[in-house]
Amino acid sequence: MKKFYSFLLVLLLSFGVLAGCGQSDSNDGAKKKENPQTVETEKAEFPVTIKDASDKEVVIEKKPERIVSLIPSNTEIAFSLGLGDEVVGVSDFDTYPKEVANKEKIGGMDFNLEKIISLNPDLVLAHGSSAHNSTEGLQQLRDSGIKVIIVNDAKSFEEVYNSIEMVGKATGEVKKSKEIISDMKGKIANIKEKAAEITEDEMKTVYVEVSPAPEMFTTGKNTFMNEMLEIINANNMAGNLDGWVKIDQEAIIKKNPDVIITTYGYYTEDPAGQVLSRDGWKDINAVKNKQVFDVHSEIVTRSGPRLAEGVEELANAIYPEVFK
User: Fold this and answer.
1) Which residues sit opposite 211 in a β-bridge?
2) Are 204 and 309 within one domain?
3) Whether residue 53 is found in the same domain as residue 128
4) Which of 6, 98, 317, 319 has the fewest CB atoms found within 10 Å of its own CB?
5) Residue 32 has pLDDT above 80, yes or no
6) Contact at 8 Å (CB) between 149 and 167?
7) b or e along 12-23 (b: 16 or more beta carbons within 10 Å of the residue's beta carbon)?
8) What domain of life does the native source organism fall in (predicted)?
9) Strand pairing report for 48-51 and 87-90
10) Residue at 12 is within a domain
C-alpha cells in the first residue's frame, strides 16, 4: 500500500494577435510605423522580471542557455517552446518527449542538489506543488547564483496557460508561448462547439478510475478531468466530490455510469477487461454496453500543452458519434 500511495502522489504531481501596422505611402514607411509593442512581443527582451508562484520577483538578465526542470509538466512546456537543447537536466519521472531519456536525471521528489549545481544551469524550473517541501534546497540553488522560477501548481486550463506564459517569458520564448496557448484554446473551442450539439437527455454520466481495484480512486471537482468532462458536455459521476478521492464499489454501482474511463493502462495490463469482468458490475450501463476505455494519464492530468489532446481523446471515447 505504501508503494501505491507513493505512486499516486507522483501521479498527481505530474499533473499556463499581433496588432497590424498602419498605412503608409510606401512599404518601408509601413515597416517604420509598425506598432513597437507588437515588435517587442516577438523579441527575446532581457532582462525580464518574473513574479513566480511564490510571489518572488526573479530578474533574469539574459536568455537561459542551460535549464534544469524539476517536474515533468515543466519539461513538457520547455520542449514545446523549442528548448529541448537548452534542457540539461530533468526529474526521474520524466517520460515525454522521448528525448528526455537522454537528459541527466536530477532525482525525484527529493532532488539531488549537488547534481543540479554540477550541471551549471542558468535557470531551474521548480513547481508550486512541491516547492514548499524543498524550500531549503531551492534557496541553496539561489545562493549558488542560479535563477529559480516556481511555476504555479495549475488546477485549470487558464492556470496552465499562465504557466506556459511564465516559462515563455523567463526563457525569451514569448511569441512561441502565445502560439501554443492559442493552439490549445482553438482546439478547446472546436470541441465546445461540437459538444453544444449534445442535449441534456443525451449527456452521459462518466466514472473516471485513476487506480485499479481494490483501492479505487476517482476525480472530483477542481481537477483537470472534471473540467475536461464539462468541456465535452459530460456528467462527472463524482462531480460532487472534491479533488482526487477514494471511492467504494457500492457507490459506483449505485451511480450506474454510462461510460467508464481508466487512466492506468500504461502500467496495468488490459484495464478495460479487468473492469468488465468485475463481480457485481454486470448491470452497470457502461459494463453492459462495453463502454469502458483507457486513456493515458499523462495527457489528462499533466499540466502542460498536451491537455488539449487529452480533451480530444476523452471526447472521442465518450461521444464517438459526435466527435468523429
Assistant:
1) 217
2) yes
3) yes
4) 98
5) no
6) yes
7) bbbbbeeeeeee
8) Bacteria
9) unpaired
10) no
- Name the 3-class secondary structure at 309: helix
- Say how many domains are in the chain: 2
Question: What confidence category does residue 43 fall into, taking pLDDT thresholds of 50, 70 and 90?
Answer: low
Tracing cell 520547455 back to the chain, one arrives at 78
For residues 50 and 149, is the Cβ–Cβ distance under 8 A?
Answer: yes
Give residue 284's domain range: 199-318
DSSP SS3 for 176: helix
**Judgement on whether residues 52 and 167 belong to the same structural domain of the protein:** yes
| DSSP-assigned letter for residue 228 | H
18 assigned to some structural domain: no
**Helices marked H in the chain:** 2-13, 27-32, 36-42, 72-80, 113-118, 135-143, 157-171, 174-195, 224-231, 249-255, 271-276, 285-288, 298-301, 307-318
Whether residues 99 and 158 share a domain: the answer is yes
> CB of 182 within 8 A of CB of 95?
no
Task: With both helix axes pointing from N to C terminus, report the angle between 224-231 and 174-195 in degrees, rounded to the nearest 10.
Answer: 50
Determine the longest span between alpha carbons in the chain, in angstroms.
79
Q: Assess if residue 282 is contained within a domain.
A: yes
Percent of the chain whose predicted confidence (pLDDT) is above 70? 86
Domain CATH code at residue 108 = 3.40.50.1980
- Residue 268, classed as helix, strand or coil, is coil
176 and 282 co-located in one domain: no
Position 301 in a domain: yes
Q: Distance between CA 150 and CA 129 in Å, rounded?
A: 9
pLDDT at 44: 65
Q: Which of 278, 197, 291 is nearest to 237 (CA)?
A: 291
- Cell output for 308: 488539449
pLDDT of the residue at 33: 37
Q: Would you call 10 helix, strand, or coil by DSSP?
A: helix
Specify whether 99 is located in the same domain as 173.
yes
233 shares its domain with 174:
no
